[in-house]
Amino acid sequence: MDATTSGTPTIQYHNLSDQPITTIVATQLPTLQREQRHCFGDSSPREFPLSANPSIVLHLLTSYDLYAQDLAKLEATCSFFKQPAKFQPDFDLSLSELAALDMCQKRAIFKPMTTEQQQYLKQRCRGSWKLVLRFLMAGEACCRREKSQAIAGPGHSIAVTSKGLVYSFGSNSSGQLGHGSTGEEWKPRPIRALQGIRIIQATTGTRRTMLISDSGQVYAFGKDSFGDAEIGIQGSKMVTTPQLVDSLKNIFVVQAAIGHFFTAVLSREGRVYTFSWGNDGKLGHHTDPNDLEPRPLLGDLEHIPVVQIAAGFCYLLCLACQPIGMSVYSVGCGLGGKLGHGSKTDEKYPRLIEQFQLLNLNPMVVAAGAWHAAVVGQDGRICTWGWGRYGCLGHGNEECEFVPKEVEGLRDVKAVHVATGDYTTFVVADNGDVYSFGCGESASLGHNPENHEQGDMHANVLSPKLVTSMKDMNERVVQISLTNSAYWNAHTFALTESGKLYAFGAGDKGQLGVDLGDNGTERGKPELLDIDLS
Questions:
Q1: Cα–Cα distance between 363 and 317 in angstroms, integer?
Q2: What is the Cα–Cα distance from 375 to 361, expressed in whole angstroms?
Q3: What are the RCC repeat spans here (predicted)?
Q4: Which terminus in the chain has less CB density within 10 A, N or C?
């Protein structure tokens, strides 16, 4: 698809002056004559019609990582980008579709797919490579796939380097650290059993860890259940080293999320599967609570690709990719309004949260706390809803919100990331600033005043408050992770752009990965771990 193989003649440039691009644009764009030229006109010195050299145009389109929306706009404004380009691998594809396909081929998840698998994904994305590209890019943006990450689990912690190496530390009563033992670890320790396996995503539950490799395989260890709750025979055994989840061997998994009663996984093609908690059709299927087989999430999302999942205590959020934009679906328990539909009603099948359309907000990242939820919009706005206890919604009170509501205290902040825990919320701005609000127990909000007159580091915060202790780090924060369990003291991780990991909050089980000294149980100020995740 480049100029050397397309058969089109090379372009001859004549008498081009050596001047900055800004000067060229400034002197040429305003002229009416240039605006009237068409893509199919005759070539003349200094100019050439696009139709004479489509391979050059295709190269430009794929060199700048354009968004799918940009390619769609080109098709809408110029027929040249819409007509068949007559290039391999499909002569009927337009230039914009070919550019989208070429950019898909660069994606780590798409690259190893067979032609049949790629075509199936295209079919799920309404037959458009541009929508496939948007689906892939959206997943990369919200899930930190192929990048370093840290998980502040219930009493234990997981850290993944950009090369896919995994460290674990903290509580280990069920072998959830994966070291073949049940002793606590107070310093980050690499999981030797994973040598030679590249991990791209991790998630934790109470006494349980799940890891996903770059080949889509899922490894689990700790308590042998698919939820925090111990149901029937589930949770009666311990697995102290990473073991493949047999029932997922035929599903290429890219993300997993653990709730209290269930586990959900997301496939490469955007299908959602759930384990356990199927009695009474709570997740759209009727199965025994001990059922260990993944069941596809039925209903509206059967034919809509999902790019991210987030599990709360008893509900699931799904960020879906549709031709009109991104949308959020929720399913599960509706108490407190955490499903976002304006009521407390449970939903057995995924239901679209319509409020985002009324707010004219295009969701880009979803976060499911134990009892409340949050979304980052493409324009940087933050919305929260659900239980408002301790001020975790950031609206200045402790009231429940039954539909997503914009956080007014962050109206002047452009958010890029949000994290939720057990009644706590963190927001990362595009300039690297971090805000937190909600429950201050265990000092997990990061507000550490110099003296008692300036406040209490355990105080609840009802409205967004800048975490000045992170600003003092002089490091750009790219990810926050919070403990998302009602039964464990909370701790928080802050991962920086340079791969440094900071921790604060509860550390009574070694989950902070730092030395707390004699009788120390927590840290109120971010402390640097001796580990490099870059």
A1: 12
A2: 10
A3: 164-215, 216-269, 270-322, 326-379, 380-431, 432-498, 499-534
A4: C
Query: Using CA atoms, how far apart are residues 212 and 253, in angstroms rounded to an integer?
Result: 7
| Exposed / middle / buried, residue 474 (Cβ in 10 Å: 0-12, 13-18, 19+) | exposed
Give the angle subtended at the CA of 288 by the CAs of 282 and 293, to the nearest 5°: 90
Which CATH architecture group holds 148-227+236-529?
7 Propeller (2.130)
Are the C-beta atoms of 391 and 463 separated by less than 8 Å?
yes
- Taking the alpha carbons at both ends of the chain, their separation in whole angstroms is 34
pLDDT band at 528; cut points 50, 70, 90 = very high
Q: Which amino acid is at 202?
A: A
Domain boundaries, the chain: 54-141, 148-227+236-529
State the CB neighbour count (10 A cutoff) for residue 288.
11
CB 369 within 8 A of CB 391: no
CA-based torsion, 498, 156, 190, 186: positive or negative: positive
Is pLDDT at 37 greater than 50 in this prediction? Answer: no
Q: Residue 449 pLDDT more than 90?
A: no
Place of tokens 């900071």: 502
> What are the structure tokens assigned to 249, written together?
């061997």
